[in-house]
Amino acid sequence: MPKNVARRGFLVAGAAAGAGALLTACTSNEPAQPASAPSPQQTAAGGTDNDRPGTRVVIGFSAPAADHGWIAAIAKNAQEQAARYSDVEFKPVEPTNDINQQISAVETLIQAKVAALVILPNDGEQLNQVARRATDAGIPVVNLDRVFPDKLSYRTWIGGDNYGMGVAAGHYIGRKLKDKGVADPVILEIQGIATLPLTQDRSRGFADALKTYGYAVTAQQDAKFTVESGTQVASNLLQAHKKIDAIWNHDDDQGIGVLAAIKEAGRNEFFMVGGAGSANAMREIQAGGVLEATVTYSPSMAASAVKLARLIAQGKGMSDLVENEVPQSITLASETVTKENVDKYLPLGFES
């Protein structure tokens, strides 16, 4: 897919907080006074404080251009997390939405012989080969978000639960409509970029969750994770459906445009669920309009990716785990933010 692939939606101020929440595993949890002598397994699970300065490592970083809130939050989370470590030299390359330029940028990091690479590819399939070249050169790759199809191309993958996002949105909508006694609801779905596997996973999770309530998606249309595309797609759907019960919009960045179209049309007979967890979406939820919830997809994953790359490059594991090495994959949970819990999540929201 040679076209530019920019993307959406979640949580900026959580550079340290988000990574710390996911990987508190990197500090010791040993009890001060064990009741009895520890077994070999208990000893292995103890671990040490992995945040102490260790071997100096250079971590390369490549991601798409920050042309919307979620990607901007990815870069900020990674940069801020790296700055926390005196033993890390952070080496980002110029962000770009051009596939060939990103390949070239990653190749410069391979030539520089960095200790580890963190890569959020514009497209996992098209950057798979250059990631494989890095691993073949002995450089561990932490694959962020959009996955490389060849598992030999990365040491560890970390990302959000796209299927889980769809499930969470589907359960919120399905449960609410079922409680209201709606028998044949009109449910609309505004996707992100339809060709991306992550979008397909979100749609599949949404359909599977709705099915448990006896519901199905009435109409589905893809946008491009941008404000402009959100406005256009929402306008089309609003004109085509004179009565709507619920909308799931995959991405809170494009959701700005979706909400603008809804306001312009003067429609409020339905409720909407967003995706990713932007700060502006959470403020809309607080205000009590058609947007009632959003399901999270946190850019704090970038901070955690840097943290994992450091551990791998230094030959460390995650000290709350029994295993000696960092896991091969880590999937973040997708959480549902509503008016009842939005105050808890708002400090972590990224700005669209």
From TrEMBL:
Subcellular location: Cell envelope
Region Disordered, annotated ranges: 29-54
Family indicated by similarity: Belongs to the bacterial solute-binding protein 2 family.
Annotated Low complexity bias: 31-45
Keyword Signal assigned: yes
Annotated signal peptide: 1-21
Name of the protein in its database record: Substrate-binding domain-containing protein
Domain spans labelled Periplasmic binding protein: 59-316
Pfam family, one: Peripla_BP_4
Organism: Planomonospora alba
Lineage, highest ranks first: Bacteria, Bacillati, Actinomycetota, Actinomycetes, Streptosporangiales
PANTHER family recorded: D-ALLOSE-BINDING PERIPLASMIC PROTEIN-RELATED
Matching InterPro entries: Peripla_BP_I, SBP_2_dom, TAT_signal
Keyword check for Signal: yes
Keywords recorded for this protein, A-Z: Signal
